[in-house]
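seq as requested:
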Amino acid sequence: MKIVFTIAPYAWSELYPGAQSKQCGFRMSKKFGLIPGSTAPLGILYLSRMLKNAGHDVEFIDGVMYPPEEWFRKVLSSRAHVVGFHSVTFAWPRVKALARQVKERLPDVFIVTGGPHPTHAGRRVLEEAPAIDMSFRGDSEKAIVDVCRVLSGGGRDFSGIDNIVWRNGTGIVENPYTPIADLDSLPFPDLGLVDLNLYSPSIGFYKALPSINVLTARGCRSDCKFCIANRTYRARNVENVVDELAWAIREYGVRNVIVYDENLLADKERAGRLCERILARRLNFFWCANARADDIEKCRDILGLLKKAGCWRLLVGIESGCPRMLKLMNKEETPEQIGRALTLARKAGIETFGTTIFGYPGETFEDGLKTIDFCCNADLSYWSVLNFMPLPGSEFSIYREDLRDHGRPTGLWGFKLPCFVPNSMTEEELIRLNLLAYQRFYMRPSYVLRRLFEMRNVDDLKRNVRGFWAFSGSTADDFKPSVCHARTWRF
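struct tokens:
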């Protein structure tokens, strides 16, 4: 069978403030913009390898690379038996529209969707999108092979296949969800499905190219209310992970790896063994990872080992500098803990990348100012200002009936834009927080000097110039929903 996986086309100006998404003469910013970037989609690469091992033909059409018209021509001419849309919540409206258009032109094509939105929206996906025949929930590597086996035999009975929602002719059936327990049973992702040289992560996420994403574990043991991560934690064998890294470096010339685990330091012993095996195998590459602040403190004695093994940056979910907001989010950390962790990482020679959330239900303008003050005084190399999104699967899902009691969605669906205005502040205050954060953090003379002294090569210089250009050019209009909606591609 021929299976085509695709990401619906979109423009970076829909997801980022105008100043950050504008293009310039630097290599990758010509395609992605000053701040945004794109990496090869790890989930699709896993599915592709599983399907190819089962004898199927797989193609990937990445919508970030093409305008809508060209994307549509490629899908229609692909001769696909199955078209699979990856869908995050911001893309869901266009996935629905494009699936309908594909079905109208290719009525015999079996259309499926997977990704974060279908995983948490459940049967609503098929209720809202009649053109979609099936959606996948969570781990789909084994399910996609079983589904294609049934389709290849001319059948349409998918009973007994976990992790899918499907139409049985009379209604919608939601099969049980079962996470894959043995991640080592999965093959390495199909890096050959894409040209890695066409991709570049956002600035602050790479030291060299080509870059790939790697998962050493799935799931998260924490229970933050804003998050949609799977709560079932499963880890790969360290040797299996290192084998993949060695293979990617040898076969594809990979020089940078983004470890996509929710929290690499959740298991201190395992993180240490991973670093030891990287060093023992003499693997030479740059890598960065996510980590909770409290786990950085617990792992203080192995931070030097992380640095020695090539870890140059840790992303830390700060979320807020206000104790009250951290409690509302069920973060189970304090600003003091977070501050200590950032300092520990910096002293070990590891750069720190903090993320925070503005607009969470209950947050006031004054709470947001506390977050700005905290980040401006913390040991942070980079700060990414995010906005709360009422994602399906989170405490304040867009499908929650009483969501309006807590605030109003603006219709935007990019973390960098004001997506939700809580009743505790105005839209103008939320926009002001976004603008103040960039101005106060990145325009500090002490910060600019530090970045200058820490630059080591021309690529560092280019990334810093891009960042300064983007943040210094931001205005309030960049964050206004009315202006942002005008930049959205229509389907």
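The chain has a mean pLDDT of 93.
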